């Protein structure tokens, strides 16, 4: 049995790894993690402190689950000091951390992607927006959990959002065409040389049912995505993912970890790639993990230690369906009832407990509910029933995920 350190908070992954490991440490963790792992009061991007902790506590494997940890180059810090780490280096992950670098990388790979522009000065961005065709997406360079992107239907709201991004200190703004179609993600596990698909996830990215409201990185989804033809998945895997990994390998910076690709199915035989993701996203992590029948500690360790290709020809995936829904709140400290009795998995993000051990809401993202069943319709039905059980004042979620 191994000791695992998570750099960053992924409740779903921490809970899953706790079943296979002797002990799991989560940095920084929090009260909600304490039932199955030990929280460590260290910032996820404080690589020196994390390394010291890993050495002093005989940690066998460190897994970077956040973009902050990856961007702080935890992979290089640990590998240079002889500690196993499942994470890409900051250099190898730059195309997944930076939207602008990712778009340039897609262009060099000749991958189908929406037309885009990268602007470091507001006047240049406004010049483009003046004559652009709408709708389009305006967003900052780095992925974020807050408002980092906006789907704009007019020059007026595009201008206001671009101005807001530059005013808050963004160094560059990315503007791209909005692509209509069915959005999905494909995840793979890789040691930088060998890659194996995990699964696909159908994404819901707008906050309101029917694709209204604000555009986000995601508010829920289901896996696997049965709508994607095998031919499309094969093209995406070979022409985008494998080409990307091969390019990085040739540059001497192989990508180790989980890599995600966000794409849009634009027709039965065509797709467009939006961006790369450097790990499982919070809103779909549990949905993906529910389908994986492997010992994740052994899987991640094989990648970190260089024997992934020797030991894995494929990854065991069961025949279940998972559906996830992000639960948000407009209000603080509202009691959330019945969370302890729902059948769905609960992945906490920003929920607390009072002295009576009642769950309390926070403004914004609170937790993700994930239901798993043999059929998608059953998983959706179960999730809808659990959402009805926990309804509280100020609760907000996208209801059509369960319809």
Describe this structure in words.
The protein is α+β, with helices and mostly antiparallel strands. The N and C termini lie far apart (42 Å). The chain has helices at 11-18, 47-56, 67-71, 74-79, 94-97, 99-108, 122-130, 155-167, 230-250, 285-289, 296-305, 308-311, 376-389; strands at residues 3-7, 23-27, 38-39, 61-64, 85-86, 116-119, 136-140, 149-152, 173-177, 182-190, 195-208, 212-223, 257-267, 270-277, 321-329, 335-336, 345-348, 352-353, 359-360, 364-373, 395-396. Helix content is 30%, strand content 30%. A hairpin with an 8-residue loop joins strand 7 (136-140) and strand 8 (149-152). The chain has four domains: 3-87, Rossmann fold (3-Layer(aba) Sandwich); 115-177, Dna Ligase, domain 1; 180-311, D-amino Acid Aminotransferase, Chain A, domain 1, CATH 3.30.470.20; 321-402, Alpha-Beta Complex (Glycinamide Ribonucleotide Synthetase, Chain A, domain 4), CATH 3.90.600.
């Amino acid at each position: 049995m191994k000791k695992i350190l998570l750099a960053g908070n992924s409740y779903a992954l921490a809970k899953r790894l706790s079943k296979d490991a002797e002990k799991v440490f989560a940095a920084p963790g929090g009260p909600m993690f304490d039932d199955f792992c030990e929280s460590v009061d260290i910032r996820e991007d404080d690589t020196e402190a994390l390394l010291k902790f890993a050495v002093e506590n005989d940690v066998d494997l460190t897994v970077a689950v956040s973009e902050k940890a990856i961007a702080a180059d935890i992979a290089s810090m640990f590998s240079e000091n002889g500690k196993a780490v499942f994470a890409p280096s900051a250099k190898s992950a730059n195309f997944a951390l930076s939207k602008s670098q990712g778009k340039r990388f897609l262009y060099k790979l000749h991958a189908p992607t929406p037309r885009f522009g990268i602007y470091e000065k507001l006047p240049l961005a406004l010049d483009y927006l003046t004559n652009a065709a709408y709708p389009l997406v305006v967003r900052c360079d780095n992925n974020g959990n807050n408002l980092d992107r906006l789907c704009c239907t007019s020059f007026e709201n595009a201008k206001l959002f671009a101005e807001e991004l530059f005013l808050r200190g963004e160094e560059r703004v990315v503007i791209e065409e909005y692509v209509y179609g069915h959005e999905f993600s494909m995840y793979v596990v890789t040691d930088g040389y060998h890659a194996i698909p995990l699964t696909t996830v159908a994404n819901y990215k707008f906050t309101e049912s029917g694709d209204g409201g604000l555009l986000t990185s995601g508010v829920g989804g289901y896996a696997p995505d049965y709508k994607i033809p095998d031919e499309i998945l094969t093209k995406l895997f070979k022409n985008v993912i494998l080409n990307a990994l091969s390019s990085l390998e040739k540059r001497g910076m192989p990508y180790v970890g989980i890599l995600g690709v966000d794409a849009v199915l634009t027709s039965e035989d065509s797709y467009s790639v939006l961006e790369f993701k450097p790990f499982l996203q919070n809103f779909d992590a549990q949905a993906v993990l529910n389908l994986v029948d492997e010992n994740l500690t052994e899987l991640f360790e094989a990648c970190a230690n260089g024997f992934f290709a020797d030991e894995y020809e494929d990854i065991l995936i069961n025949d279940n369906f998972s559906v996830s829904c992000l639960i948000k709140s407009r209000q603080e400290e509202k009691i959330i009832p019945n969370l302890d009795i729902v059948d769905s998995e609960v992945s906490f993000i920003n929920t607390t407990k009072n002295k009576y051990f009642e769950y309390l809401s926070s403004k914004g993202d609170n937790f993700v509910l994930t239901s798993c069943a043999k059929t998608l319709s059953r998983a959706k039905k179960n999730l809808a029933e659990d959402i009805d059980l926990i309804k509280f004042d100020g609760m907000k979620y996208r209801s059509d995920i369960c319809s």
